[in-house]
Amino acid sequence: MNVKIRNKTRHYRTVSFDAAANAVVLIEQRLLPHRFELVRTRDFRETTAAIRDMVVRGAGAIGAAAAYGLAQGARAFRGAGLAAFERHVEKVFKTLKEARPTAVDPLNALIEVRRKMAAGQTIAERQAIALAAAEHFADEDVAHCEAIGRHGAKLIRTGTRVLTHCNAGWLAFVDVGTATAPMYAAQAAGRKFHVFCDETRPRCQGASLTAWELAQQGIAHEVIADNAAGFLMSRGEVDLVIVGSDRTLGRTGEVANKIGTYTKAVLANRHDIPFYVAIPFSTIDWDMKSGHSIPIEERHADETLGAWGVTRLGRREYVRVANPTSGARNPGFDVTPPELITGIITPAGIFKPRELWRNRARLGGPR
Ligand code: MRU
């Protein structure tokens, strides 16, 4: 992504790796849009904490962070013998896997890196393979997002009013993004359109991250309160919805995504507005048989009971909004059934949700 700060433009990846320092390099997303900072995690435990505490967030980005975290952990091994090395790798794998439960990209990334490592005959070979495999995951994430842009661009014409939820943009992936990829491709083709960013309570990824990305990219947009989408749809002011996903079931076409996605899908269906989900292959779970089995992350009640923002003096602060004696529920994700989804935009083309399984060979799935 090209980021412009104080009139200087530079290209950044959301997640990268400094091999000399054995450090994962991340954009500190909790500070955006108010401050742009890079942070380095020095070991796999710090990488796990960065995923858990949402320094880095978004399915593809935490997938890449987990892949690099596994390579980082493997490269830090100082013991002797392949058996001890494998026990260490297993511990690193398990720690990273448990950082956040709903997105399947980290699990798919970790499995892929570990599978490739098995080809190494020595510890040194396996360490080198781990890093190459993590780099491959990150590069493929970018390539997949670009392909999603090519397939999805035709959905956006000049004048289209697009609604998106949460952040499935650059910041949620290594670069480019999924829900935003068709927007960036349409922009590159010279089309002028408008994007409504759902604010996405409770963490406001739409208001803070998607709006920042679109502003950086020069795309016309407005932030709307989550509750405003139905009204705008009822007045004919939304033509298209595109969202991302944290886990899409290849067998059923059910889509887990940021809390509030299901509500938007119901509303879009009610108003006959096409509802698309954009995903790379790493977001597909080919094993799970029902959306009811998807582990839905329940986050801290404080997120629902208050909000983070920046004061006039530039200090980042949490303010309590809710009644001081009330508690809260805070499910981070919901599941949208296939009948509410017009199409799934993938790197291999656009499919109906129930067509994923039949096309699994083209979508990186099992034989
Ligand atoms: O909790 P987050 O910010 O990691 O969740 C990310 C999302 O749910 C986004 O909506 C996105 O669509 C999926 S990640 C590409």
Characterise this structure:
The chain has 367 residues and is an alpha/beta fold. The chain has two domains: 2-145, translation initiation factor eif-2b, domain 1 (Four Helix Bundle (Hemerythrin (Met), subunit A)), CATH 1.20.120; 150-359, Rossmann fold, CATH 3.40.50.10470. The protein is built from ten helices and 18 strands. The protein has helices at residues 44-52, 59-75, 82-97, 105-117, 123-152, 181-188, 205-217, 229-234, 261-270, 301-305, and strands at residues 2-5, 8-11, 15-18, 23-27, 38-41, 161-164, 194-198, 221-224, 240-243, 247-249, 255-258, 275-278, 284-285, 306-310, 316-320, 333-336, 343-346, 349-351. It has a seven-stranded mixed sheet with strand order 8-7-6-9-12-17-18, with helices on both faces. A four-stranded mixed sheet has the order 13-10-11-16, with helices on one face. α2 runs antiparallel to α5 (123-152) and α4 packs across α5. The radius of gyration is 20 Å and the shape is globular. 5-S-methyl-1-O-phosphono-5-thio-D-ribulose is lined by residues 57-60, 166-168, 172, 178, 205, 243-246, 257-258, 332.
